[in-house]
Structures are given as C-alpha cells and as structure tokens.
Amino acid sequence: MIQIKYQKKKGFTLIESLVAIMLLTLIGIGIVSTIIYARHYTEMEKQRTNALTLASTVMERLKRTVFSAIVPYTQDVVIDDNGSTAVNDDLHGTLEVIVKDKDGNTLPGPPQNNNRLFVEIVVTWHPAGNPSRKILEERLISEMAP
Question: What's the CA gap between 46 and 102, in Å, rounded?
C-alpha cells in the first residue's frame, strides 16, 4: 500500500487574504473620511473666528466713538485670512451694525437721548470657496451708555 502524506502548508488562503484586504479598506475609508470632516470643521471654525474678530474690532471701535455718533450701517466685507492672493479662499460677506433702544426698537439713526442702547453687530458670509452653500452668521451684542 502506498501512503500519501499531506503536508500542512503554512500561510494564508485566498479567502483569508481577501477578508483582510476588505477590513483594511474599510478602516482606511473610515480614517480618510474622518480626516476630511476634521479639515472641513477646522476651516469653518477658522472662518467663524475671523467673523467674530471682525465684529469685535468694530464693536471696540464703536465703544470709543462719541455716543451720539453711533449710527446703524451695512457694508460688504472681504477678509483675506491667510495672506494668499487666491480669491476663492477669502471670506466674503456683509457686516451690519444695528442700534436698538432699551425696549428693543431699532433706531434708524443716531440716538436722540442719553439712554442706554444696544448695539448689535451681525456678520454674514458665504463659506470660502463655495458660495453656493448656505449663508453663515455670527452676532455680537453689547449694551452701551453715554
């Protein structure tokens, strides 16, 4: 009688290899999508910080202004946040200064009396590089007295 010896080969089968490749692919996709989300979130927070910095700067300037000269106004703003010459990475939007009396009524011009008033600064902008996305907004409100 002839005996056939089977040798147990060490290594991976084709199915084991395919399963391992699929698992590594799924893990890689998860890592890449997390990195993309983190970059997007960081960019949005950078834009938000720039808008709040602009609003704070305007608010501080208004605090140093003569009380009777505080008037509501609106202006277009462009903030180049990284110093590059590329146009599509700038923050484009609108800055609006709203002046309200103590009852919350919007004043059309400078305050007529020496009562306290509230100044609200609203910065709205399109996300940089993607003007088709929703408009974002930040508000800063401060109470001022003569």
Answer: 33
Rounded to a whole number, what is the distance in angstroms from the first to the last CA of the chain? 114
Q: CB under 8 Å to 142, separation ≥6 — which residues? A: 59, 63, 118, 119
Burial letters 110-131, b for 16+ CB under 10 A, else e: ebeeeeebbbbbbbebbbbeee
In this structure, the number of other CB atoms found within 10 A of the CB of residue 83 comes to 5
Question: Is the confidence at residue 136, as pLDDT, over 90?
Answer: no
Q: Tell how far CA 127 is from the center of its chain.
A: 7
The CA distance from 146 to 132, in Å, is 43
**Contact status, residue 99 vs residue 117, Cβ threshold 8 Å:** yes
**pTM (2 d.p.):** 0.72
- 10-40 pLDDT, tens digit each: 777 889 899 999 999 999 999 999 999 999 8
What's the chain's length in residues? 146
